[in-house]
Amino acid sequence: MDTDTPAVRDVAASHRFDEDGLARYLASRIDGFGRLASVQQFQGGASNPTFLLVAEGADGPRRFVLRKKPPGQLLASAHQVEREYRIAAALQAVGFPTAPMRHLCEDAAIIGTAFYVMDYLPGRIFRDATLAGLQPAERTAIYDELNARLAQLHQIDWRA
Question: What predicted TM-score, i.e. pTM, was given to this entire model?
Fold first, then answer.
């Protein structure tokens, strides 16, 4: 997959929200957000709907990712984007490599549910853990990096 062009599509009808309201809200909460130029939905995924936001700020275009709960009745323990945000922000604070977290909104009045926004980071997505199609040296490098991050994660004092 191209690292600069994410697999996105138009926002599904069941996941649409007030983009103008979101734009006003984020412009007052994320430094340099500017004007919301586009909203698209990432393809795939199995849990929380995820969207690519492109904002036109004073420094040029910036890409962000918005994750929200799906519509409808949800179990209280399911789809906890608030928990996702807090964990990723805590990991970021101790130097673990995560996308920079920008904002958590727990006010359902903004887009109909809680959501958070983080920076978009380009990269490859591997949906097959065997990494079919890659050369052995490239697979080895990816698995070595994965193991290094897992080891780093296991050394974090989660109580702190």
Answer: 0.87
